[in-house]
Amino acid sequence: MMAPPMDASTPTRESPVAGSDARAVRISGIALIAFLALYAAMVISAPSDAVQGSIQKILYVHVPTALASYLGFFVTAVGGLLYLWRNDDRYDRLAHSGAEVGVLFCTLCILTGPIWAKGTWGHWWVWDPRLTVTLLLWFIYLSYLLLRSFTEGSARTARFAAVYGLLGAFAVPLNYFAIDLFGGAAMHPENLERDSLGAGMGLPFLVSMLMGVVAFLHLLAQRVDLASLQAQALERRLQSGAARRGGPAEDIPGSGSPGTGALSVDNDRGSAL
After folding, report:
1. Which of 1-15, 59-73, 89-103 has the lowest mean pLDDT?
2. Would you say the pTM of this structure is higher than 0.90?
3. FRET label pair with 172: which of 14, 76, 100, 197, CA 20 to 30 Å apart?
4. What residue numbers bound the domain in which 139 lies?
């Protein structure tokens, strides 16, 4: 008995790239579960700050989300640079995925910051240099995502996004060193240094930072895996359409980018679907 034909839009894992992405998701997922249990135990058992009280424990969420957002924007810059160099859609997908995960963690950082600020400063939000630059960083990469969503998935879009992601990365060190640059104008605590935490807080903080890295890697692996499946599904639809027309399948530059929904080609090449 012959197997029923597969829908061209059904994602499968035929390529080695998609298979490696799926393995990365599984491995990072196992590590995330293991770290989650350790993280919860360490944060619960960590001593409370003598001045701030229990509200200080939001440190173990706020700072790791900031680190994860930095990692996401760094991946966007590196992926964009590699795409400009190699012209390989896999790097464009990596850059786009990094931006999505980075914006997610930056949003969590912005949401947890005011909770901590209300408990320590008495205000939900102040236009502190660090907070202001963090909000600017969030808008920079949100604009990157909107650019990818509202434009066609062409090679031109991918190149423009790569350059934008590279330039946007300069806001990351500006954000980190904002307190040093603005000196006494900053209400935000200084960047943590060795022995700057109270007794018994160092190990929980280290575990929370590792937790942020593992969570970032897992979400990035999931997003890249989904992007690879979307690219494969699009390629099969193009091949299926070409087979019905009796001609070769056309390539769509940058069509593998996640979330672009790019199923159209330039006017001079005609419609591919």
Report:
1. 1-15
2. no
3. 197
4. 19-44+54-238
Q: What are phi and psi of 49, to 5 degrees?
A: -70, 140
CATH number at residue 158: 1.20.120
Look up residue 194 and give its two tokens: 């060795």
In sequence order, which residues have a C-beta less than 8 Å from that of residue 221 and are 6 or more positions away? 21, 24, 25, 28
Would you place residue 2 in the very low, low, confident or very high pLDDT band (cuts 50, 70, 90)?
A: very low
Distance CA 142, CA 255 (A): 21
For residue 258, tell me if it sits in a domain.
no
Instruction: Provide the 3-class DSSP secondary structure of residue 49.
Output: strand
Structure-token match 């954000």, residue found: 175
Residue 158 near residue 254, CB atoms below 8 Å: yes
146-161 tens-digit pLDDT: 988 887 667 888 999 9
- Whether residue 32 lies inside any domain: the answer is yes
Q: For residue 244, what are its two tokens?
A: 């019905």
**Both structure tokens of 149:** 């969503």
3-state secondary structure 80-140: HHHHHHHCCHHHHHHHHHHHHHHHHHHHHHHHHHHHHHHHHCCCCCCCCHHHHHHHHHHHH
24: number of Cβ within 10 Å: 17
Pairwise CA distance, residues 194 & 210, whole Å: 17
Compute the distance between CA of residue 130 and CA of residue 249 in angstroms, rounded to an integer: 50
Task: State how many domains the chain has.
Answer: 1
Reading the block at residue 169, the tokens are 């990365």
Digit-coded pLDDT (tens) for 215-231: 999 999 999 999 888 88
The whole-number pLDDT of residue 16 equals 52
